[in-house]
Amino acid sequence: MICEMCGKEATATHRVEIEGSVLRVCEDCRKFGKLLDPLIAPAASSVPVRGGSRPASAPFVGARRRTDERDVFSEVPEMELASDWGKRIRIAREARNWTTEELGKRLNEKKSLIHKLESGGFRPPDSTIRKVESLLKIRLRADPAEAG
Length: 148
Ligand SMILES: [Zn+2]
Description:
- By secondary structure, this protein is mainly alpha-helical.
- Among the domains are: 1-40, no CATH class; 85-146, Orthogonal Bundle (434 Repressor (Amino-terminal Domain)), CATH 1.10.260.
- It has helices at residues 61-74, 85-95, 100-107, 111-118, 126-136, and strands spanning 14-18, 21-25, 34-35.
- The protein has a 3-stranded antiparallel sheet with strand order 2-1-3, with no helix packed on it.
- The longest helix is centred in the middle third of the chain and has 14 residues, at 61-74.
- 14% of the residues are buried.
- It binds zinc ion.
- Zinc ion (ZN) binds next to loops.
């Protein structure tokens, strides 16, 4: 390629505007005019950026977390019991004409434990509460309305 400014053979030329005319010039002569092709590498800035094809695969992150939260929730330690939960056990037991011993057998617990339960002196684990509730068809847990 020949520089149109100085006539020298050049490996690469630049398009510049010099005093109203556009010339292809060498590296040396480029500074005399206003550069029209800022980048010699032609395609770099003309490739359109493809936007909008990405977000489709994102929303998985939350799903697993939910499961974890539910696991934690199921381990919530102690149910809130009605203030008279011991009495509720006794009343339900007596309504069935069961002795404490019999109730103990059905719950697979000791008679002495039943006494403690009915006096409210021992707060059994939630699993036992559920057993008692389902056996006697009663509810030992506090009603939301009752709390207040
Ligand atoms: Zn030149």
